[in-house]
Structures are given as C-alpha cells and as structure tokens.
TrEMBL record:
Matching Pfam families: LRR_8 (PF13855)
Protein name: LysM RLK1-interacting kinase 1
MF terms (GO), sorted A to Z: kinase activity
Organism: Hibiscus trionum (Flower of an hour)
Taxonomy of the source species: Eukaryota, Viridiplantae, Streptophyta, Embryophyta, Tracheophyta
Chief location bin: other
Domain of life: Eukaryota
Length: 89
C-alpha cells in the first residue's frame, strides 16, 4: 500500500479512522484539519515523518490517538492541551 490519500481529509463527519502498516516511501501527515469530530485516530506505522500538525488540538472529541512507529520529530504542539478527553495516546 502507498501513502494515505490526501482526499481522506474531505470526510469531515468521520469519527473513526484506523490505518496501519503502510509500505512505501515516507510521507507527511495527511490534511485532516477538517475532521474535527474524530474520536479514534490510529495512524500506526504509516511511514509518517516530521512534526505533529497543530490541527490535532482541534479534534476535541478525540479519545484515542495512536501515531506509534512513525518517524516523528520536534516538540508536541501546545494545541494538544485541548485534548481533554484522550484516554489513549
């Protein structure tokens, strides 16, 4: 499988997205800023690299966030302080 399609961010009403074990080249985070109703977001082992996007802090209904086994760098954005309901990070 290749990278996460950029059009996935158009699914604004999606509440559960689980993608894992992608093969291929490294990729940046897909544009998910419009997915504010997300409750479960799992992007495990998706060859994602770089800094965490600020838009995660806008996903205020998020309960589960799993970004493990990627190539992340930089600091955790201050916007993550808005993730008050996260049970699993």
């Amino acid at each position: 499988m290749g990278p996460i399609p950029s059009g996935i961010g158009d699914l604004e009403k999606l509440t559960d997205l689980r993608i894992s074990d992608l093969r291929g080249t490294d990729a940046t985070f897909p544009p998910l800023s419009s997915m504010k109703k997300m409750k479960i977001l799992i992007l495990r082992s998706c060859n994602l690299f770089g800094k965490l996007p600020d838009y995660f802090g806008d996903m205020t209904t998020l309960k589960t966030l799993d970004l493990s086994f990627n190539k992340l760098s930089g600091d955790i954005p201050s916007s993550f302080s808005g993730l008050m309901d996260v049970d699993y990070l």
